[in-house]
Design brief:
Blueprint lengths: L13 E3 L7 E5 L3 E9 L2 E3 L5 H12 L9 H10 L10 E9 H7 L6 E4 L20 E3 L7 E4 L5 H18 L1 H10 L4 H4 L8 E9 H11 L6 H14 L4 H12 L6 H11 L11 H13 L3
Antiparallel strand pairs: 1-4, 2-3, 3-5, 5-9, 6-9, 7-8
Helix pairs in contact: 1-2, 2-9
Bound molecules: flavin-adenine dinucleotide (FAD).
Flavin-adenine dinucleotide (FAD) binds next to helix 7.
Length: about 300
């Protein structure tokens, strides 16, 4: 009996979205990196980008309906604007990342990725420690309890002393590494010996995520409220994927990342401004008022 299955291969010439590279790496901080190691779709019809997979998925789900939005870029921009998210899950990226452990702790909170991390139980942790440069040591922000913005001025003697004291503190902690190695040589298990090591040590993982959730991650971690050390990784990731999904990346910038959300109270304040009001929002909440002031400044109002 002949097989009821026929494999059909299209003739269309395809191109590799990573141009044949097995790895595209961005160096980040002093010992870190983020490398794009794979993408789906990897092959796209000649002359197209991986944006094509979003369009392909949308057209199957919308069927005839998409004929109104004839142009592919227009369709992607429509989907992103209206939060039709599932077509963006058809694109995936796999990264190999090396980042300080304190950054990995923030990163792992994003639950929609697949992760495999280097194991300090199986292997000795390499001696890579994150140390900021002396002119990049941030002071505790007075306005934001979570943040540090302004750096210590190395032109100021007292401030430079404090910055150097911080670096000396990091150096001291680093000396624990030799003891860690010694203790493992004396037979202490790797899983216990490592617990005396600091969180500025680097760890590594493979991190795979679809485009929808990756953009959500980037929106939170490229934002100015995110800690500088994770922000630089997020920015590097965006730079790696931007040429692969240029239309999605631009639409995301336009409608999400660089867009502005207005609350009902803010819309009322805006309306009030137009009719001679003071433009203040009716809220007792200090932070909410400050956020509105920041938006007004951005809008030159
Ligand atoms: C600037 C900043 C400061 C932060 N500060 C703190 C802090 O002080 N303390 C702290 O603990 N965390 C903090 N976080 C982490 C934050 O609360 C989130 O856990 C993290 O940003 C992941 O966000 P997410 O859940 O939207 O993302 P993901 O886990 O990537 O999930 C993406 C989306 O999937 C959906 N989803 C995923 N899992 C579930 C689920 N189980 N149930 C329902 N929906 C789900 C949600 O819609 C979610 O938005 C901070 C994050 C940022 C960006």
């Amino acid at each position: 009996m002949s097989s009821p299955i026929t494999i059909v291969k299209p003739e269309t010439p395809f191109r590799d979205v990573m141009d044949g590279a097995s790895r595209m790496e961005a160096r980040v901080l002093d010992h870190g990196f983020v490398a794009l190691v794979d993408a789906m779709p990897r092959l796209v019809p000649e002359g197209q980008t991986a944006d094509q997979a979003v369009v392909q998925a949308a057209r199957v789900s919308y069927g005839q309906g998409t004929k109104q939005v004839s142009e592919d870029a227009g369709l992607i921009r429509y989907l992103l604007r209206h939060r039709h998210t599932t077509p963006f899950e058809m694109v995936e990226f796999k990264f190999h990342v090396c980042m300080p452990i304190f950054i990995a702790r923030q990163w792992i909170r994003h639950r929609t990725a697949n992760v495999n991390e280097y194991s300090g139980r199986y292997s000795i942790l390499p001696d890579r420690f994150y140390t900021p440069t002396v002119d990049a040591i941030r002071k505790q922000s007075q306005a934001n309890r979570q943040g540090g913005e302004e750096t210590f001025a190395i032109s100021d003697e007292a401030e430079e002393r404090t910055a150097k004291e911080f670096l000396a503190f990091l150096k001291d902690v680093e000396t624990q590494y030799t003891r860690y190695i010694d203790l493992t040589k004396k037979g202490v298990s790797r899983e216990l010996a490592r617990i005396g090591l600091p969180v500025n040590m680097y760890t590594e993982w493979y991190w795979k995520c679809d485009l929808h959730n990756l953009l959500h991650f980037l929106g939170l971690r490229m934002d100015s409220h995110a800690q500088y050390e994770i922000r630089v990784f997020a920015e590097a990731m965006f730079r790696l994927i931007e040429p692969i999904v240029p239309v999605c990346a631009q639409a995301w910038r336009d409608y999400h990342f660089e867009a502005m959300h207005l609350s009902r109270l803010e819309i009322e304040a805006l309306r009030g401004l137009r009719s001679g009001g003071d433009g203040q929002i009716k809220s007792e909440n200090k932070r909410e008022r400050a956020e509105w002031e920041a938006k007004r400044a951005r809008l030159d109002l």
